[in-house]
Batch of 4 targets.
Target 1
Amino acid sequence: EVQLAESGGGLVQPGGSLRLSCAASGFTFSIYGMSWVRQAPGDGLEWVSAISNSGGITNYADSVKGRFTISRDNSKNTLYLQMNSLRAEDTAVYYCVKGVVGYYYMDVWGKGTTVTVSS
Amino acid sequence: DIQMTQSPSTLSASVGDRVTITCRASQSISNWLAWYQQKPGEAPKLLISKASSLESGVPSRFSGSGSGTEFTLTISSLQPDDFATYYCQQHNTYSRTFGQGTKVEIK
């Protein structure tokens, strides 16, 4: 069974940093591009960042560009999101999402990890 | 960036109703559109990709259509399990923009 398990969320002060991890299992991780999608409380879905299967290509939403860094370790089947200079508006549930080869949509979602930015 | 606009934002319907949700793109995206269903407290679930391709295991009462800038998600006969929020997402470009969501409520 394909599974994605996020971790690393928590409470952080504005301006602080946090690193999210996503452990993947049940599929050949190194074949698939991966994304992070977030959802602020009571709000809709916002794509945050994506990375190619090899890690060589990364993309970011304008709202996080220059502050967040996506990366992956295919030997550990793990996806990461390094979040720096956090703002209150970054407060959200962050989902790790598996991509589909050759397409920009996403077919498997983790349960999410909650990030709260507050003093 | 491509903007995605869904309508309505909220829809009240009864079990057995035929329900249609519309998604419009700010520029042509061919048929590169996906639909997701999200229930409260759960992660989204992929229903349809490439505008009309039903994912394995998704009930046949769900269908998608459209191309270019206008798309629809139709539920032919609403079931109790279908009360949820539905999101469209363009998969024409890497920016993967979502619509703002349509909440389907019990009438």
Target 2
Amino acid sequence: EVQLVESGGGLVQPGGSLRLSCAASGFTFSSYWMSWVRQAPGKRLEWVANIYHDGSVGVYGDSVKGRFTISRDNAKNLLHLQMNSLSAEDTAVYYCSREKETRGWRDASDIWGPGTMVTVSS
Amino acid sequence: IQLTQSPSSLSASVGDRVTITCRASQDISSYLTWYQQKPGKAPQLLIYGASTLQSGVPSRFSGSGSGTDFTLTISSLQPEDFATYYCQQFNSYPRTFGQGTKVEIK
């Protein structure tokens, strides 16, 4: 079964750090771009970052650039999101997702994990 | 690129035809994706490339449009379709989402 499962969420103080992980199974992880998307309570989905197959390229949304780092371990089928300098505005459910391609162009996130909640509060 | 969905919410009955629109602030060709999200759950892919139905998605869902104006249509609303629907563009970074359209029971 194709599956993604996030972990690592929790309560963190403002200014603190947290590392999220996403375990992939049921597909060839190293063949796909992977991404993180978040959703603050009652708000729209917000794309956070994505990463190339081999981890050599990461792209970030403006709101997290310079604070978050996306990485992957293809040997262990793991995706990570290192989050630093956290603020209340980063409170959200964080989803990892797989990006699919059609004729060489990425055009959707077709597999999503159930999400992990990150709460930034003192 | 900003995506604006309309309406933000709607009330409909089982069997109704429902149409949701997504307007992009600039030309995104056909790189528009639709998701369904139920409370407390992850989004599920419905349509990609503006009009291609994802495998396993019921045929009552359809998408159309290109450029800046897109439409998601549910031909006959079913009880399991009450949810929030989001559009997302894959034309350029950042991969923006619309604000969502909540479909509620009338």
Target 3
Amino acid sequence: DARVTQTPRHKVTEMGQEVTMRCQPILGHNTVFWYRQTMMQGLELLAYFRNRAPLDDSGMPKDRFSAEMPDATLATLKIQPSEPRDSAVYFCASGLVLGLDAYEQYFGPGTRLTVT
Amino acid sequence: SQKIEQNSEALNIQEGKTATLTCNYTNYSPAYLQWYRQDPGRGPVFLLLIRENEKEKRKERLKVTFDTTLKQSLFHITASQPADSATYLCALRDMDTGRRALTFGSGTRLQVQP
């Protein structure tokens, strides 16, 4: 049963600290997404990759957030320095996109981040 | 400005009834629209996809309609069960921007009473 995995599941940190979240997409999927979900803003796209290349990171505060895919089995999202307003659930999702065809996204369980 | 609107108030219905959830959008030209289910503490799970040239799609007790004139999608769950209680999110891919990513609505929470 293929699924997206994320670590850690929960993270509590102090303001100013670096936070790294990791995601293992489903094997064979060529597109990876990072989302942030809060009660106020809902599910917001931060960045996404196709074949490990970043396609869009316009949703991400660039001064403190960075997203990478060192290889096809690992995507990372880093926040440095973290701030209380970054507290949210961060989801990774993957999908298989072929040309312009539609696709569904498979979400991981999320990382619940609390910055105090 | 672009908006995807779902009823923010929870929908409470009795078991066995049909639940109907609404997704309205403004200033998008969706290539397709998707519906996801999200349970507390979990990531969204894909349910159905409907393309711009399709009026209706069904899967077991689920039915989705898509009206590009009204700029609206309706999501129906027939013979609802308490296990259907969850938050339901609509999402669309906008053709105009060429952006491959989905934009999500804020979701509607459904509560099915036994």
Target 4
Amino acid sequence: DQQVKQNSPSLSVQEGRISILNCDYTNSMFDYFLWYKKYPAEGPTFLISISSIKDKNEDGRFTVFLNKSAKHLSLHIVPSQPGDSAVYFCAAKASYDKVIFGPGTSLSVIP
Amino acid sequence: DGGITQSPKYLFRKEGQNVTLSCEQNLNHDAMYWYRQDPGQGLRLIYYSQIVNDFQKGDIAEGYSVSREKKESFPLTVTSAQKNPTAFYLCASSPRDREGLYGYTFGSGTRLTVV
């Protein structure tokens, strides 16, 4: 059973607009949530994380929002750029356990 | 520069042969991981090690073996028992107590093709 879900396999956004990538989870013991970006034939790179005690974390164009009651988080990219086109993985971690990855969402930013 | 090095980048194997994928890190990370990615799919955990001379099976360990004799190295052997070995293999590492904040550091991957 998937503990971390990304229900949208793909997303297309116009350059300059906002990209919103969604993620749902089932394990209430997760205390950290992370987003990774992956280009084809490369390893994922860490983007941003959020602790379960926060509801928002921002880093430049990237903001992650956490709604614990809904077991939902989202990554906002503003403004979207063509170089943001990649697969984005949502991930989560409980204390003393390994990171669990979602299946990924492929983002295409159209110039 | 610190990082994770996976080699080779591309690897071809004949059916029935074992093959070993290399993963070396100079980040002084305690924990290391092996993942597999198939086309259109997410990352699936094969094996992980949180300390030298110890490792644990992940979700899809069958047909794979690992060793962790040195902190810096975590080689993965794909054996002939692995039914569908063609995939993109990713190695990662992390400090044991800060994975939540900073996540894993990944290598650039090895694409294994069985011919």
